[in-house]
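S.,

Sequence below, as promised.
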Amino acid sequence: MYTKQDLTAQIQTMGLRRTDAVMLHSSMKAIGEVEGGADTVLDAFMEYFSEGLFMTPAHTWAQMSEEYSCFDPKREPACVGIIPNLFLKRQGVVRSLHPTHSIAAFGPMAAEYISGEENCTTPCTPGGCWDRLRRIHAKILLAGVTHIRNTFIHSVEEVMDVPERFTSEPVPFQIRMPDGCLKDVAVYRHYNPHTAHISESFDKLSEVFYTTGAARKVSFGHAQCILCDAEKLFDVICKVLSHERNCLMEREYIPSEWIM
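The prediction came back faster than expected:
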């Protein structure tokens, strides 16, 4: 059984600094038995990155729809596991106002970082929170999950204008704003005519990321993890997509010469 001290030591072993910005995608089941459970996992991350920026996805895409269209960031649970949902309840944690792809954040720059997401019109709008991970030199830690859960890749696809990624028309939503009023917005949803889950193709990039140094293998708890550099991921994905914008859906492998 892992203790908070064990987990903190593993974070240090990854080479992460206390002032870093880190996005955590996680599977508590993969992390294994921890003294104090998921709360201890959060204690370790929040204490370690108290001078930086610690984030988790707080997605609601699974439940938000044309029929269930009012997003209240203070009440709506995330659809991405126990750690994000516990994180949302922690003191000092703020949540962006994106109706389907919100981010929960903690740290001195958290409120500033997540601001403005109520103006997004796509899941990972260029210039929005997910895209800006590269601009703040963030690290992305996939703890017990793979790139199938790496939302940042969607943001790169949006920058590169990859086809067949959205619904033909935006979906109307309402967002409960901090002052209690409702803001009407229209946001495109992820959609591809050939698959229900676009991100299932993202693991095709795994070896490319390792080869280029954009990602490396680390451990946290009992989980096999991938630690990514958002800026390097962006550069590698752009090189790949510049050859064939929809290659992740159309190809079984990525030619090595595409990243040379």
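The longest strand covers residues 223-229.

Coffee later?
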